[in-house]
Design goal:
Helix content of chain A: over 70%
Strand content of chain B: under 5%
Oligomer: heterodimer
Largest sheet of chain A: none
Number of strands of chain B: 0
Distance between the termini of chain B: 39 Å
Largest sheet of chain B: none
Number of strands of chain A: 0
Structural class of chain A: mainly alpha
Largest interface: A-B, 74 and 81 residues
Mean pLDDT of chain B: 85
Shape of chain A: globular
Low-confidence stretches of chain B: none
Structural class of chain B: mainly alpha
Radius of gyration of chain B: 24 Å
Number of helices of chain B: 15
Mean pLDDT of chain A: 87
Low-confidence stretches of chain A: none
Distance between the termini of chain A: 21 Å
Chain lengths: 314, 348
């Protein structure tokens, strides 16, 4: 029988259990057992110890970095990339280890590009750096079946695009910037949700991806509302509305409360920004406060209702 | 589910009297309000945003100009929030009562400020609000916030009166109280009064306060404590760490002479870090304590602050990379030697 401390609290408050009995219950039923202590201390000291040791070695190289020949600098990094990738291939029967090694190699590739740029002063800007990094690792990302690496890759694509608009396409309007950003992330979300039906994909990954797409859509719409040339964003409004509707259709079909909660929160935020745009006097702020309390409460009620309807069949 | 638990308790302690209908009733309410993380985040953010909107309304509408009006509205809202939350056992009202409570406190503080009342009196009034809230209402989030108000006002008092050395006394008292609270959960439950309900939120608040006050002194040149206070603080931190290690060793039944000897040496060398960076040892102590009582949330919180404190400490250290590298490698070897010792024990 598994107890938590809330159980013990409620039971001891409504019984005549004495201090020693409660103490015994907590000690035997709630607190960590000696066996788990060995497990925890083993992994904790191992990861802390190895982590410190690795950082110490890293600092040691960093201390001597200035004096190292450029051949050695690049050599160390390339050697590490080759070693991690080969180790990843060698242990391909242990998927977690192999995937972590490939992810480490992906990160090292970024460091390698940075050091290369520093040594040869290639004159490349941040956009070129992220573009090179993204393209160089895309093959590993494709073959690996590892959500953290995919997330890193999607982040890299987004950063590359952001750098592109900051450094190359400086004359783009805000609406064009958001339009392409949304098309990019909406299609990624669509693809992930489509692939989910064929393959096993971790739930947290789907949550992060959908949350990011919905957040980007909401920010785009709010920027449009607050923008001095709101009419340019008309297409974005329609795109986001269509995306929200599609997502909700999918969520109802798949019984996915996360998506419904997020899109509705996005709608609440958009509505509040509409209210605040018309803020002429203090009453709007009062209305906003009231609206927030009521809409959030209604949304929570809806989520509870859906939870009961969809999951409480047992 | 709960009926099984009651049966188990009866089986373990046959002569115990349980108020079964009441326990089942409490579980029914808890189950109805069993909220997912999504809902908790929503209600917290909704509450915060609504608070901001109401404060903006009050600031613009002109109520702000009348200190008396601010006081009356502020205290009314605080009282309303506390009693509403007590009467209606419905977590849906969390959003509303928490935002109302925070708005009330902000209004009272600003009202007092525009009445030109001395800062120490304002701090004392906030402290009193915290204490009275804890006496009236013992629900989780409200008592958590009220306890933070109480502790925060003490911290603010030292800050305002430029008695920064009291910060070390504050940390020492908090550290000892936290350790006491962690090891005496059963005592608080056996009291069967308001303290029983306050136990869980106050424990979380204690950890948050400790981590916050340690982060104040871990920022470089932020607070420079007098040497005596600094040494005393480090000593208490080191001894608390050793005491927690001792408690765990008792629990793990480490008895044979050789293991005890190695454990003492390693624990002493780790506790020595307290004289350079007490914040790291406090975080380590909290990691052990939260793992001891099996609290996932506090465990994650203390692991994160442990890593942050270490990162900040090394970032701020005015030494060459070579020195940092050697210290890090030595620490790594220390933890690894501990690991080898533990592994050997587990296999034996």
């Amino acid at each position: 029988m598994h107890f938590n401390n809330n159980d013990i609290k409620i039971i001891s408050k409504n019984s005549n259990l004495q201090n020693e009995q409660i103490s015994w219950l907590l000690d035997k039923k709630v607190y960590t057992k000696p066996k788990d202590w060995y497990f925890f201390l083993n992994y904790f000291s191992l990861s802390i110890g190895l982590g410190f040791l690795a950082t110490g070695i890293l600092f040691f190289f960093a201390y001597n970095w200035q004096d190292l020949h450029k051949f050695i600098k690049l050599g160390i990094l390339e050697f590490l990339v080759v070693v991690t990738i080969s180790a990843g291939l060698y242990w391909h029967k242990k998927p977690i280890l192999s995937n972590i090694l490939i992810t480490v190699a992906t990160l090292l590739t970024g460091v390698l590009f940075a050091v290369f740029g520093q040594i040869y002063q290639t004159g490349a800007n941040a956009y070129d750096f992220f573009k090179g990094w993204t393209f160089a690792v895309s093959l590993w990302v494709l073959v690996s079946n590892f959500e953290p690496l995919w997330l890193l890759f999607i982040a890299l694509i987004n950063i590359t695009y952001f750098m592109f608009t900051k450094q190359i396409a400086t004359d783009w309007s805000d609406s064009t910037y958001f339009l392409i950003l949304l098309l990019l992330n909406f299609s990624v979300t669509g693809m992930v949700l489509f692939l989910k039906q064929k393959f096993q994909i971790a739930t947290w990954f789907i949550k992060v991806i959908t949350a990011y797409a919905i957040l980007a859509g909401t920010i785009a719409v709010i920027t449009g509302i607050m923008h001095r040339r709101s009419e340019n964003f008309l297409f974005i409004y329609m795109l986001v509305l269509g995306f929200y509707l599609l997502l909700n259709w999918y969520a109802v079909k798949q019984k996915n409360i996360w998506i419904i909660a997020l899109t509705l929160s996005g709608m609440i935020a958009i509505f509040i920004s509409l209210l605040l745009k018309r803020a002429a006097d203090s009453s709007i702020f009062f209305l906003t406060g009231i609206f927030t309390v009521i809409s959030v409460t209604a949304l929570i009620k809806l989520i509870l209702f859906l939870q009961k309807k969809w999951y409480d069949k047992r | 589910m709960i009926k099984d638990k009651i049966l188990k308790i009866k089986e373990l302690f046959p002569e115990t009297e349980l108020n079964e209908s009441k326990i089942i009733g409490i579980y029914k309410i808890e189950q109805q309000n069993n909220l997912s993380v999504t809902i908790k985040i929503l209600s917290v953010f909704g509450g915060l945003f609504a608070t901001l909107a109401f404060i903006a309304f009050i600031a613009i509408s002109g109520i702000w100009d009348s200190a008396t009006a601010l006081e009356i509205i502020g205290f009314t809202i605080i009282g309303f929030a506390l009693f509403l939350h007590k009467k209606v056992k419905n977590l849906l009202l969390d959003t509303f009562s928490i935002s109302a409570y925070l708005v009330g406190v902000v209004l009272v503080v600003f009202g007092l400020n525009s009445m030109h009342i001395s800062e120490n009196t304002i701090i004392f009034i906030v402290f009193l609000i915290g204490v009275i809230s804890l006496i009236i209402n013992q629900s989780y989030i409200l008592s958590f916030i009220a306890f933070l108000l109480l502790e925060g006002s003490v911290l603010f008092y030292f800050q305002e009166n430029h008695i920064k050395e009291m910060l070390s006394v504050f940390i020492i008292v908090n550290l000892i109280l936290t350790t006491f609270i962690f090891f005496n959960e059963a005592f608080f439950y056996s009291l069967k009064n308001k303290l029983t309900d306050l136990y869980a939120p106050v424990r979380v608040a204690f950890v948050v306060v400790l981590l916050f006050s340690m982060s104040i002194i871990s920022i470089k040149n932020n607070v420079i404590l007098p040497v005596l206070y600094q040494t005393f603080l480090s000593l208490v931190v080191a001894f608390t760490f050793l005491y927690v290690v001792y408690k765990i060793a008792v629990k793990m039944q480490i008895k044979d002479r050789k293991s005890v000897f190695i454990l003492v040496i390693i624990a002493l060398s780790i506790s020595g870090i307290a004289f350079f960076a007490p914040q790291i040892i406090v975080a380590l102590t909290l990691i052990l304590l939260s793992y001891y009582v099996h609290s996932k949330m506090l465990f994650v919180l203390s692991i994160l602050s442990f890593l942050l404190f270490i990162g900040f400490y090394y970032y701020n250290l005015d030494e060459t990379l070579l020195y940092k590298s050697i210290v890090l490698m030595a620490l790594g070897l220390l933890f690894l030697s501990f690991n080898i010792f533990i592994l050997k024990k587990a296999n034996a």
